[in-house]
Write a structure and sequence with these properties.
Elements: E1 4-9, H1 16-27, E2 30-33, H2 35-47, H3 55-64, H4 72-75, H5 78-87, H6 91-106, E3 110-115, H7 118-122, E4 128-133, H8 136-149, H9 156-172, E5 185-188, H10 194-208
Parallel strand pairs: 1-3, 1-4, 2-3, 4-5
Bound molecules: cytidine-5'-monophosphate.
Residues 12, 34-35, 38-39, 81, 84-85, 88, 115-117, 166, 170 line the site of cytidine-5'-monophosphate.
Length: 209
């Protein structure tokens, strides 16, 4: 049987990660957070004190990325996320990581991949494509509450500015910019709970089964 693939794209803090994990559990699929692979490259460069603009070194780091060995805790920091969005503009880095992501999607019984270019570039033939979004204000509010809940400190205005800058960089780059695939289902979660978003996504997936 051919693997069943669900592509989930959307901007930073849209809730696509949580949604993707739940979909994977629900449908018995494997899950890959492709943002972590760009974060791993950024983290390798930062740790070695190398420039994020150094495409050759970034490609080396991309070749070393092993999905099984990625540590979400180490890679989840704001600094690494910012750096990831800067290394992700290098086309040669994208080529290496996209190939690995496609290999992951090819394994039975299939997978949920989340990122920025899954429906448009990585898995253009995915069985289901979701584009998950919410207004920048809603996304900043969610991230702000999450940081406070974990006992951290943050300022709403600074988070909003970060999100808007990241959106501009991810949507404005030349190679594989963030945009909905023509055949994607738009899921605007601005006024939705996580549960409501999950149920709406399941209804879309069930149509394609
Ligand atoms: O989703 P996350 O915040 O972990 O992604 C970090 C950065 O990696 C994004 O801002 C984006 O620039 C890049 N990325 C990408 N393509 C993907 C996933 C992430 O360019 N498929």
């Amino acid at each position: 049987t051919t693997p069943f693939v669900i592509a989930v794209d959307g901007p930073a803090a849209s809730g696509k990660g949580t949604l993707s994990r739940r979909l994977a559990t629900q449908y018995g699929l494997r899950h890959l957070d492709t943002g972590l692979s760009y974060r791993a490259v950024a983290h390798a460069l930062l740790s070695a004190d190398l420039s994020l603009e150094d495409e050759a070194q970034a490609v080396e780091a991309a070749r070393e990325v092993d999905f099984a060995g990625l540590d979400p805790l180490v890679l989840s920091t704001h600094e690494v996320g910012e750096a990831a969005s800067r290394v992700s503009v290098h086309p040669a880095v994208r080529r290496v990581l996209v190939e690995k992501q496609r290999d992951f999607a090819r394994v039975a019984p299939g997978a949920v991949l989340d990122g920025r270019d899954i429906g448009t570039v990585v898995c253009p033939d995915a069985d289901v494509k979701l584009y998950v979004t919410a207004s920048p204000q809603v996304r900043a509010g969610r991230r702000h509450r999450e940081i406070l809940r974990l006992g951290g400190q943050a300022e709403y205005g600074a988070i909003l500015a970060d999100i808007e800058r990241r959106d501009a960089r991810d949507m404005g780059r030349a190679d594989s910019p963030l945009r909905p695939a023509a055949d994607s289902h738009l899921l605007d979660t601005s006024g939705m709970s996580i549960e409501a978003a999950f149920l709406a996504a399941c209804a879309i997936v069930d149509e394609a089964l």
